[in-house]
Amino acid sequence: MIEKAQQLLKQIFGYDQFRQPQQDVIETLLGDGDALVVMPTGGGKSLCYQLPALIRPGVAVVVSPLIALMQDQVQALSQWGISAGYLNSSMDYSMAQEVEHQLRSGDLDLLYVAPERLLQPRTLKMLSECQLALFAIDEAHCVSQWGHDFRPEYLKLSYLQECFPGVPRIALTATADERTRDEICERLGLQNARKFIQGFDRPNIRYRIGQKHRAKEQLLKFLKAEHMGDSGIVYCLSRKKVEDTAQWLQEQGFNALPYHAGLHPELRRHNQHRFLTEENILMVATVAFGMGIDKPNVRFVAHLDLPKSVEAYYQETGRAGRDGLPADAWMVYGLQDVIFLRQMLESSQADELHKSIERQKLEAMLGLCEITSCRRQTLLTYFGEPLPEPCGNCDTCLEPVPVWDATESARKALSAVYRCGQRFGVNHIIEVLLGKSSDRVKELKHHELSTFGIGKELDRNQWRSVFRQLVARGYLSVAANSHGVLYLTDSCRPLLKGELQIEMRQDKRKQESFSKRNDP
Ligand code: ADP
Ligand code: ZN
């Protein structure tokens, strides 16, 4: 049967060979087995279920949370002469009826369906009357609470195993550390599934994380120096910032389009379509943009704000360079990002369990930002795939980061926070360290503190860098709902007592920091 798959690969999709591990996955499904497939974005997951869908009798049901993309996927399949349809809540009744009719008459090879729609009794009943080739559960990390994109509907997909025993199931995802993987298998009843974990390294992506000074100017400089005429994605945290940045880039002469969940669906679809079909477009977007986007020649992904987790960072940056040619993952981040994310987390409504998960994820992300060794090694270690040698294609490899002994300065910073009563944000503390007797400082009598003016050896930016690293490493915490009030954590005791030395990154003064790509 695998010969049949080989033949269809060539005949329908026009490819000569399978990629790793497509063939083994397909064989597993053709042999009635279940599979868990973890492959990076762009690895070629879809073929793993599309080919068995064509070979096995009956219809393959593909569960996907990406309603916006179903139509595109179905259209693409139709162009290859494959009969596919989709069902979701955004379609009108008569369209749904048409698809249901095709399904009942056995005309469909593939049916894409949103999880909530699939789990409606009516849909389940209809499927129980059809011959089913397989279930494919796409973006399977959505079932994991440890994962970064939890969707409660996904939990109920465990019904599939109960309602349709004997129909092979394949779960697919691009992001899964070991913990998420285990959770997927447990929650979807895939303990006996064969597991295919494909390498996460994206050697053609150059990772760079720099200090944020004036983010838009830095972005402009990066674009002008390295990416004129290229397609790329610029991620921002908020909708407002997306719109501001897109407009600003337009004023600078770029074809920049905004994308976020608050835009009219029609406009969103239009912008996405333009990005996919035209060249030289910058998509300025929130994280709402990108899942499932398959544009091979995205030359860079820029982050103007810090993602909340390493998984999110990996997935977002992974949209660059799917064609295998050199691409950039470029990010600037600063003290405000750290404070903002920490504070958002502490003030959120989530229960303690979730907060602690989120906290660990943010720690890991901040760790990746602050390390002075190879970024790729850290990234891959996080995904359980350590890289033996430094990669030579990230900023820290290309330009080793100088470190300095910051023990004394860190102590001064922490004492200043303490002496000011742990009730102030970073700007005020820095005023005190620098010995600026502003009205506010005088009013609070902070010019009488022992820490007043003890930090004149560093300038404001250097102090911000110290504070950023102290917050990032968890020596200082940000009070919930406080606009950035800093307080000491237990972990700073050894530092204050002089039992611990601390080295910090020496941030560059100016933004000349990013070296230009100097490939041959
Ligand atoms: P994923 O879902 O893992 O992100 P896709 O299934 O969208 O990736 O595939 C990414 C790209 O790779 C698509 O353009 C697809 O057609 C192409 N592709 C998949 N398998 C092969 C193969 N065996 N040979 C060449 N190209 C392939
Ligand atoms: Zn490296």
Automatic annotation (TrEMBL):
Top enzyme class of this protein? isomerase
- Enzyme Commission number(s): 5.6.2.4
* All residue ranges annotated as the Helicase ATP-binding domain in the record: 26-194
GO annotation (BP), single: SOS response
Q: What is this protein called?
A: DNA helicase RecQ
Name the keywords, alphabetized.
ATP-binding, DNA damage, DNA recombination, DNA repair, DNA-binding, Helicase, Hydrolase, Isomerase, Metal-binding, Nucleotide-binding, Zinc
Question: Which top-rank group of organisms is this from?
Answer: Bacteria
Where is it found, in Gene Ontology cellular component terms?
A: bacterial nucleoid; cytoplasm; replisome
Q: Cofactors per UniProt?
A: Zn(2+); Mg(2+)
Q: Where is the Helicase C-terminal domain?
A: 215-365
Which family, according to UniProt? Answer: Belongs to the helicase family. RecQ subfamily.
Question: What residue stretch is flagged as signal peptide?
Answer: none
Question: Which molecular function GO terms apply here?
Answer: 3'-5' DNA helicase activity; ATP binding; DNA binding; four-way junction helicase activity; hydrolase activity; metal ion binding
Reactions catalysed, as given in the entry: Couples ATP hydrolysis with the unwinding of duplex DNA by translocating in the 3'-5' direction
